[in-house]
Each structure stands twice: as structure tokens, then as C-alpha cells.
Request: fold
Amino acid sequence: MASVSASAWRVPGPARWWRRADDPGPPIGGRVAVLLLFLPPALLLFTLFVALPMAEAGWYSFFRWNGYGSPTEFVGLRNFRLLLDNSDFRTALTNNLLIIAVSLALQLPLALGLAVLLADRLRGTNGFRLIFFMPYVLAEIAAGLIWRFVYDGDYGLLAKIWQSFGAAPPQVLADPDWAMTAILVVVVWKYFGFHMILYIAGLQQIDRSLYEAARIDGANAWQTFRRITVPLLGPTIRLSVFFSILGSFQLFDLIMPLTKGGPSNSTQTMVSYLYNFGVTRMQIGFGSAVGVVLFVICVSFAFGYKRVLMRHD
Amino acid sequence: MGSFQPKLIAAALLLTVVSWAQAATVRWLHIEQNPDVAAFYADVAKRFEAANPGTKVEMQFLENESFKKKLTTLLQSPDKPHVIYSWGGGVLREQVKAGVIEDITDAVNSGGWRDRLSPSSWNTYSVNGRVYGVPMNTSQVVFFYNKDLFAKAKLDAANIKTWDDLLGAVKTLQAAGITPIVAGGADKWPLHFYWSYLAIRQGSRPAFEAALRGENKGFSGDTFVRAGELFKQLADLKPFQPGYLGATWPQSAGQFGDGKGAMMLMGNWLPNAMAANSADKVGIPDDKLGWFAFPSVPGGKGPLEDTLGGMNGWLVTKGAPKEATEFLRFFLDATNQKIAGEKGFYIPVTKGATEVLKRPMLKDVARNVERSNYHQLFYDQMLGPSVGAVVNDISADLAAGRVAPAEAANKVQQAWQLAN
Reply:
């Protein structure tokens, strides 16, 4: 998806009709009609289901409110103060950063490596692509439940492996020191296929003749990868990093079936924290404050990243 | 044809409106997953409809967790259910404060309804002297034990009377190579029974009521710190099954049924859940399943007769038709509740419905609660959703050794101050 639009922007032709001096474009009345016809539905939906709830959450975050009636007890910035003082929230934030770090340091290189191996149209590559992409197709809840079985210390796959060596099986999801690691494994497993497909699409846009020229000039595989593949894959890599970081901030539905944020709140992410401490405890004002913090982080990241790193893409 | 169709639609609409006006529909939202109990509910609904021609009872179902999460939104929708399930306590207080629950005091005072239940039962569902709901069943948390495993370790449950006896039993079981206790730590509330019961045994009713009033440093006072310290004594022995912090409540009920541990602190609803989740779908048969009261603690003021448990019931939502209240009057009368007691679904609180209890364990619990001078509702329900969740959190943290007893008590007090 990414590389398609990225390359489309560089192609002169119909895609840039509005810049071309020799093309006056459709009559102005037609454009207004199109605007009037097509803008309201999208604008209405966006306002009703995105902009308005966000503004409301911002408003609620200044109240102590259990969700009944309308909020009346204004508490100023107290919810935010409580939030920053809360050690479980700090754990959640740290976990989010950990997920980002692992995604960038392990998941994306793994995806890129596999993409390079599988980008060529050789026999069997399609099968491997399909296998690696499968985890991404699975629903998060289903994937979480499957891995809960895998990790089960009594009957799980992991337990059977340990038992075959005669060792006492570990209870990874029940151990506050190991549960997060176990979740990180699932995160990498679940999403590397998506990034791999992105990279494969990007790789297929690279002109083959560049590789041919490099080979004739005597470049070795590493030099080819370093000097041709990575620079030309730049827009795709930047986009995949963008998706990866935003997705990491919003991780929720893998956590719930695996650990519900436990044991001892050691595997909460910001969104699971919002759910467990805001919605479940009927502290809608407090939960809204979590939402606002998450929103600010995501929006400043998204705009900052686009402005600094993706401005040429 | 062109003019015929609208007329037809109009006629159909009119018919619908007329039938609505004639027949009141009572929307009854329950959370019962056990098919036998649900069938009993459906039968009650059918007989109510037969006794009140023109009234319809529409049964709706939500799973426990989804029910709790959706209820706030649900109660503020025009499509809300008329009769809903409740655990009483802090959530009920908040709902009443928000004005979404119907005051049924007048209905309860008429037709001899009030005499059907003990005053203390009505109290559980009253706020500021007005009745907002009708309790249906009661429960008590006790120590269940596996008689075979106790015999293997040469233990006699009758000798476990004090906290030190329990700690001793844990050590004996461990020496015999048996996991002493099973707990569903991932859901946290099974562990909060320990902290609550220890506080009850330590300070009984006066300590809890003083804490509610904010006296003696509230929940950060000595009673609750001591409860944490005693719990830590147990947790330090590592008495729970491997991976207990990751085990959900249904999973742990199955593990206990499979004989993976000797004891389990749980409400009297355990046997049903144990059967459903055990590998052989039976679990521990009734004659191999024993139980004893939560032991007393050194220097504690609470007698063994104090009980921790629940009192669950039904509420009528604001603006519901009066048939909804009448339905509860019908459903919760002795005739219908006897059926539930006879089949062992739960322990009814309606007078005259407990004599028919057959299961010895249910009989015991019914007698305990009746005799108890202090039946404490589960802390996590009683203290309201936000404070209750903190009690659950710190209980799991205490079991895992991740919080000090004094700090745990402080966290509860802080949450209480924020919420009130």
C-alpha cells in the first residue's frame, strides 16, 4: 500500500492534473458540486465519531465522574496528577516503550531480512510469504488465546518441551518478571509478517537493472544491500517504522487474552491501563485523562515524525 | 396497489401500538451461565406470564464481565432492561445516587413482602432507609479442602482453628509433597478473600465501620496493616500452586477439582464451578470435599462466627413498568425460591426456602450466615468499583510479595479518600 502511493506521487501524468498549466481541469461548478456531495458524509462521520468524542474525553478528564448522568465535580488537573504519580501507569508507559524498542530492534530487521530473501520470484517463495503473513491475518484475541495455551505451565507446548528434558516447566505468564517478555515474543510473531509484506512490495519497485549494474561493478551482497536496497527502500522503511511505533502505543487486544495486564499489573500498556483503571473501575474522568495523554503522545509523534522523517516521501 | 400498501403498513403499525399498550413487557437481564438455573428462570418467567395475562417477560443475557462493563451505559439508554442483577454494596450506592434505580419501598411494604426476608437482608439493599432492590441469595467464603490429600499428609482439618494452625498445615502439606493451596490469582478477587477475612478476624465489625468513617487512620490503620502482615506470613511460605498468578478463577477451580492442591479459599459456589472446569467434569465428589471456617488470628477481636460473603439480588431500573416489581414479588417468593434451594442452585434468603436445602455444605453455610452477627459483604463490592479494584490489586501484590503490608493498606486508604 505504502510503496504504491509513494511511487504514484512521483509519476507525472493524470495524478497531477491540478498542476498542469495546459489542463484547465473540470469546470468550477462541478468541483463545488462534488465537494457538496462527497464532503458532508465523511465530515459528519468524522465529527460525530472522532472529533466530538475526543473533545468530550478532553472535557471529562477534568472531572471526577463515574459515568452516570453528566459530570459535575470539577477537579482541575487532579486526574493528570494522580496519573503521573501512579506507579502502574509508569509501568504501562515503560512497557509501551519496550514494545517500541523490540519492534524496531528485532521485528523490523527480521521482517526486512525475510523480505530480501523472499522478494525474488522463485519457486516456493509464495508459500513462505503466506506462512509468515498468517499470524497477521489471525484476530488478536484468537492469537492471544492460542499463545496462552502455548505458554500454559501445565498443558502447554512450552511445558511439554521443558518436561521432555525433565525440567519443571516455567509459568511465564504468571511470573511478573517474565510475562512481558512472553508478550513481546507474541507481538513480534504477530506483526513481522505485515512489515515483511510492506518491504516485499517496496523491494519489487526497485529497478532490477541497478542490481545488475552493481553486480557488473563487482559489488558483494552486503554492499548491494547497504548501497542499493536500503536507500531505495527508505520510504517504505520509514512508513513501516511509523506503523510499528503507532501500533505499539495502541497495543491492547493481545494483552487482554494473554494476561489482562497482570500479574501484579506488570504487563499493562497504556490502553489496557485505560480500560482496567478507567472503564472497569467506573472512573471515566480518570480514564479520559489517560486517553488524553495517549492522544497527545500519538498525535505529537505522528506529526513530528511525518514532518521530520517523512517530509520527502 | 400503490395506495393499498401504505394503508397496510399503517394498519400494521396501529396494531403494534395497540398491542404494546395492552401488554406490558418486562425486560429481564440476567447473567446466569448455568443452563439448569437459566431453565429455572425461564420457567418462572413463563408461569408469571400465565398468571398475569397480557404481560410479557423478555429474557436477556449478558456474560458477567460484559454485564459489569456495559451496565453504566445500558442504564442510561431508553432501551434499558427493567430488572437487573446486583451484588449490592458500593456499586448499588452509586447507581442510586445517579438516580437510575427505582425506589420500590412502597411495593415492598405492601402485601406482606417485607416479612419474607430478615431486616438485615433488606438493609443490604437499602440506601438512606429506602429499599432499592430485593436480595435473592447469600453466600459465604470458607476453606474447602481435599479429604484424600489431607489424609495423605495425615492432617485433620478439625484441628485448624488458628492462623498458626493453618501455617502449620501448609508446612505439613509441603513436607508431604502436596501443593497446599490453589488460587486464581489472575482474577485477583480470589486473593482478596485472604486480606478481607484477615481484617475481619483481626478487628471484626467495629474496625471496618471505623475505617469507613475515617477513624483510626481509616484503611491504613493497624487492623489492615496487620491483615497484610499475616497474609505475608502465608505468602512467604509459597503455598500456592505453580503459576497461580496467571491462573483465572475458572481455571483454578478446575485445578482444585483435579487434585492439584489441597485447599482453596472460596465461596460456596465453588462445587459447581469445580465440576464444570475439572478434567473429568466431576472434580472432588461431595464425600471427599471438606470445609472449615477461616481460622482466627493471634490477638484478633473477630470471632469465628463472623462471615465474609455476598448477598446478591435484583434491582428495578428507573421508569420500568410496575409489572417489573410485581415480577420480582412473584419470582422471589418462597414457592419459587424453594425450587432453587431444592435443586441446590444457591442459598435463597427468602424465609422458608432454606429448609429444603439438601447439599450438606449449603445447609452449613445457610446456618452460618443466619447465626452470624456480622456478615461482611465482599470488600471489592462493598467499597465500590474503584476502591474494590485497589483491594484486589494489593491482595495480588501481597501474595506475590511485591508490596509491603503498610504500603498496601495505604493504597486502599488513598483510593478510599479519592472516591469519597
